[in-house]
Every structure is written in C-alpha cells, then in structure tokens.
Write a structure and sequence with these properties.
This protein is of the alpha/beta class. Helix content is 38%, strand content 22%.
Amino acid sequence: MIAPKLWWDDGALAAVAAGEQTHVFAAGDHVADAIRLAVAHPEVVLSLVLAEPVPVPDDVVPLLAQVVVPTLVLASAPSSDADLTAAQKLAGEIDNGVFVVIDGAPRPVHTERRESFAEWSASFVAIAEGLAARDGRLLTPPTPLIEGALR
C-alpha cells in the first residue's frame, strides 16, 4: 500500500499530525509550511513535492539544511528568462533535493502541465517509497513495484 499523497491544503497537516506516513505536496506560499512540517516530523513525512515555490520567509531558510526527506522541486519556465531563483535555492539547499524545470510551460506547472507534473511526481514518490522501505522507515508494506526495484 502506497502512503497517501496529500496537498498541504487537502489534509496533509492532519494526516501527519495523526502519525500517518504521507507524501506532502505543496505549492506557492504553502511550500514554507510543508518544509516546517517535514523538519518537525521526518519520521512521518516520506517526501516533499514542491511546485512553483515562492521565496521562503527568513525563518525557513535555516530549516532547508534540516530537511532529510527526499524533496522534488518543480517549476515551470514559460520563457527563457523566467525567474527560477526560489525553486533553485530550495532544491540546492536541501540535501535530497531534486530540481525539475518544465520548459515552455505556463504557471503553475501542477495545473497547466498536469501530465508532466503527474509523471514526475509519481516517479519521485515511487523512488522515495523505495528508499524508505530500504531504510526501514516505511510502515506500510511495499508495493510489488517497489519490492521488485529493491532486489
């Protein structure tokens, strides 16, 4: 059984507070809240998927180095001069951070390029589950896909 994938504003906080292992998705201003949650509950947050992040507040910047869960940062680049600074900073300062740019996509990437966003995030979640299973952090039994990947 794969852990739930919940958006910040669709119950991620409640699930994590209840001790349910969760892949936390957040966009825009909610990215800072998701980072705080991952730092406070690394045993329950299995991964972060952060879409179109805005610059995080000053109190969150030092927390980036404390994020221990795999983190995917996705941003769209509608033009070649698109400002990707906030997304690059997040991915660069999180040890397990991965940065993906969807070139030519209008913002926000998670609604304007749903297929690309879904493929990247689904693949990342599967990798994060595999890592958690390998490290003994996954509380639910791994799916056959993950078990096959770990052999």
